């Protein structure tokens, strides 16, 4: 048997290596396709995260498990976006990290994100970019009435005050995230059915 294996390795070494490589690549590709094809529990972005290493991912996982959308689902998150309302007013073109803003705005306006977690500085920048959907049009009547006392208005691109974000600063969920700031707001940039479902799940969890 040893001599036979030695013979195979000697004469068919390249074919064996190629076959093994193909099997490994196929397995990895299959796993990637499976992971990316699972339904999304929540796709979120944290704006102005104080310390990305302190951000508590377990809070998001606990939320997903609580609503029964953890196993077999995927969670997408980004904590690498820094925005400032005053900075936006001066123009992002002159900022060295403008590509981050461009990528963020592109993803936010293409229904990629369900929820944006932010402080007021970031919220004002998002408002000026018209990234948030107006809450009075976005939320159904029952949900709107549930959170109406927490709604905050921001100036949009047209300069008009519009109901855009919800203050969740006093919730255990917001505190457990460890965002690095005490004023925590959420706004919603996506308008696909999946986005609305994710937002409804989150608000039902925060305000049962």
Describe this structure in words.
The protein starts with a helix and ends with a helix. By secondary structure, the protein is α/β, with parallel strands linked by helices. The model has no long low-confidence stretch (mean pLDDT 85). Helix content is 50%, strand content 17%. Strand 4 and strand 5 form a beta hairpin. The protein has nine helices and six strands; from the N terminus they run H-E-H-E-H-H-E-H-H-H-E-E-H-E-H.
Summary?
The chain is built from nine helices and six strands. With 208 residues, the chain is an alpha/beta fold.
Beta-strand percentage range: 15-25%
From N to C, what is the helix and strand string? HEHEHHEHHHEEHEH
Q: Give the strand order of the largest sheet, numbering strands 1, 2, ... along the chain.
A: 2-1-3-6-5-4
Number of helices: 9
Structural class comes to alpha/beta
pLDDT averaged residue by residue:
85
| Termini Cα gap | 67 Å
Helix coverage percent: 40-55%
Characterize the biggest β-sheet: 6 strands, mixed
Low-confidence stretches: none
Q: How many strands? A: 6
Morphology call: elongated
Radius of gyration: 23 Å
Question: How would you summarize the topology of this molecule?
Answer:
Layout: H1 2-37, E1 40-47, H2 57-66, E2 74-81, H3 85-90, H4 98-108, E3 115-118, H5 120-128, H6 135-138, H7 141-147, E4 151-155, E5 161-167, H8 172-177, E6 185-187, H9 193-206
Keywords:
six-stranded mixed beta sheet, 208 residues, 50% helix
């Amino acid at each position: 048997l040893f001599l036979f294996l030695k013979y195979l390795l000697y004469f068919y070494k390249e074919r064996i290596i190629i076959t093994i490589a193909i099997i490994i690549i196929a397995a990895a590709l299959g796993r990637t396709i499976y992971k990316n094809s699972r339904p999304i529990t929540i796709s979120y972005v944290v704006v102005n995260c104080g310390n990305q290493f302190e951000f508590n991912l377990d809070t998001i996982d606990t939320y997903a498990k609580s609503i029964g959308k953890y196993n077999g689902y995927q969670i997408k998150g980004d904590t690498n976006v820094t925005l400032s309302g005053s900075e936006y007013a001066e123009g992002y073109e002159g900022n060295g990290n403008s590509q981050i803003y461009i990528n963020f705005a592109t993803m936010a306006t293409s229904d990629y994100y369900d929820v944006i977690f932010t402080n007021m500085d970031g919220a004002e920048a998002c408002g000026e970019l018209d990234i948030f959907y107006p809450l009075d049009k976005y939320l159904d009547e029952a949900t709107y009435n549930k959170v109406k006392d927490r709604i905050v208005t921001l100036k949009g691109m047209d300069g008009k005050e519009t109901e855009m974000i919800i203050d969740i600063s006093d919730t255990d969920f917001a505190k457990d995230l460890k965002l690095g700031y005490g004023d925590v707001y959420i706004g919603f940039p996506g308008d696909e059915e999946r986005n609305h479902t994710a937002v409804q799940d989150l608000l039902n969890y925060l305000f049962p």
